Amino acid sequence: MSTRWKTIFPQKGNSIQGPHAGPHARSGHRIVMDAKQNIYCYGGYNPVDPVGQRDSPHRNMDEFPMFRELWMYNCTFKRWRRLSTTGTKPEESASYACVLIGHRLLLFGGTGYPFAQVRSNELYCCDLTNYRWTKLKCDEKRRPSKVYGHSMTHIGKYIYLFGGTVGFSYVNDMYRLDLDTLNWELLRGSSNPDLSPSARYRHETAAYDDKVYVFGGGTSTTCEPLDIVWEFDPSADSNGGSKALKWRKLNTVRDDHHGYPKARKCHGCVQIGPDVYISGGIGNDNSTCFRDMWKYNIPTRSWSKLPYSLSEKTYFHAMTASPDGSTIYSFGGVKGMEARGSSEERLRNLSQLRLSVRSLADLSWERLAETRPKIRECSRDDLAKLGVPAPYIDSIDRSPAVETEQTLHAASAS
Fold first, then answer.
1. Does the first or last residue of the chain, that is N or C, have fewer Cβ atoms within 10 Å of its Cβ?
2. pLDDT at 239 over 70
3. Where exactly are the structural domains of the chain?
4. What is the pLDDT of residue 224?
5. Phi and psi based region of residue 99 (left: phi greater than 0; alpha: psi -120 to 50; beta: remaining)
6. SS in 3 state form for 207-263?
7. What are the φ/ψ torsions at residue 278 (nearest 5 degrees)?
8. How far apart are CA 226 and CA 205, in angstroms?
9. 8 Å CB contact between 137 and 176
10. What Å distances lie between residue 142 and 122, 139, 294, 368, CA to CA?
11. Rounded Cα distance, 309 and 24, in Å
12. Collapsing DSSP states into helix, strand and coil, what is residue 185?
């Protein structure tokens, strides 16, 4: 089994055009993956006007330099589709935070352009069964500030939102959203700065044993070290239920040979069970970029540097993992400064890293899809008669795509 990152899009010699051509290069987006082997990507930013692509489904030029589109990559058939959505979609589509809960994509906050001047504290939901966006109604007085560069973590019936920036100042607030009532609650910790994490943005968070863990991040001029990980325990109430001492500063265990990962922000992050994987990012001086990859084990608080790195130094990229934990994916981002010089080059590469051997059934289905791509045109009944298991039938992409620029503009106006 190869333990190297492999670029699966764009492939060499790929001449696919139209709604399957794939998303344009971008940064500040997020990606998630569902149980049907579909990767979803919303939003992002690219300041470069793609010359000659004004009439291409790559981009709605009315929204330049932001992207407000939903793409789906089907890992079985290895193709992108730009999805035709309805409803009220998020306008502030860079450095937002999102979580996937079942078939619902929940998205909060973010920035439009110019950055910081256009911000959001709205909560949106996209139903991935019909691709309809809905702006959810939350208590106006209790919801978080208009922030971007924050994080969201799902635990049980709650979503925890931490940190972010309003443009020129940063916050370290922890909010909790009750998914049953859609009420926000500010969870106050200690007022002692030594007993709570510093204000930051473009950090990442993970959840384990009903606790939230914070990794890295920083401000426009600083980065937080990764030898320290902050733990937030929502159940750690004291004094008869007052919400006070919830944060705990954890000293972590270094890799025996490589020490600790360097301080960074704007890195990629994904969690698989008790392990948190981080890659890339940018350092304290805002010019040192990374392509290394590390694993943090939450129960042992230990770091391990992994023997595989991103194909190039990258930051502001997005990562996700397959539900079975066998594969990690990375998409887009800004190319490291050493490689791009003074330009602001974004990437459109979708790469995968296999962490474990996949099942024979998965490999067989993928091979069948590769050699017989028209199988996706078969009906469910016909595939069932052939003995194809239901989970593989369900993974076939049957969703509508944006076929023309006119269709794209109509969807944008909804």
1. N
2. no
3. 6-412
4. 97
5. beta
6. EECCEEEEECCECCCCECCCCEEEEECCCCCECCCECCCCEEEEECECECCCECCCC
7. -125, 150
8. 12
9. no
10. 12, 6, 37, 52
11. 23
12. strand
Does residue 412 or residue 199 have the better pLDDT? 199
Q: Which amino acid, residue 398?
A: R
Strand ranges across the sheet with 293-297: 268-272, 275-279, 293-297, 302-305
The model's pLDDT over 173-210, given as tens digits with 9 standing for 90+, comes to 999 999 999 999 999 766 677 789 999 999 999 999 99
Which two three-digit tokens encode residue 245? 């001492």
CA triple 49-50-54, angle to 5 deg: 95
| Alpha-carbon torsion angle 405, 406, 407, 413, nearest 10 | 110
State the first-to-last Cα distance of the chain, in angstroms, to the nearest integer: 46
d(CA 313, CA 6): 15
DSSP sequence for 255-307: BTTTBSPPP-BS-EEEEETTEEEEE--B-TTSS-B---EEEEETTTTEEEE-S
Residue with tokens 């069948």: 368
Please give the Cα distance from 244 to 189 (Å, whole number). 5
The pLDDT of residue 251: 97
Is residue 193 within 8 Å of 142, Cβ to Cβ? no
**Contact in structure between 351 and 319 (CB atoms under 8 Å):** no
Query: How far apart (Å, rounded) are the C-alpha atoms in residues 1 and 272?
Result: 19
Q: How far is CA 252 from the centre of its chain?
A: 25
Instruction: Give me the helices (H) in 114-226, please.
Output: none
Give Dmax (Cα) for the chain: 65
Query: 142, 184 in Cβ contact below 8 A?
Result: yes
Instruction: Give the helix/strand (H/E) hosting 175.
Output: strand 174-178
The first and second tokens of residue 133, run together, are 């966006």
Q: Identify whether the C-beta of residue 318 lies closer than 8 Å to the C-beta of residue 41.
A: yes
Read off the pLDDT of residues 140-153 as tens digits, 9 standing for 90 and up: 889 999 999 999 99
Q: How far apart, in Å, are the Cα atoms of 123 and each of 120, 178, 210, 294, 371?
A: 9, 12, 23, 32, 42
By the 8 A CB rule, do 393 and 385 touch?
A: no
For 6-412, CATH number?
2.120.10.80
What is the pairing mode between strands 86-87 and 132-136? parallel
Bond preceding residue 274 cis, omega within 30 of 0:
no
HSE at residue 292, side-chain half, CA atoms within 13 A, is 17
Euclidean distance between CA atoms 205 and 153, whole angstroms? 7
Cis, peptide link before residue 197, omega less than 30° from 0: no
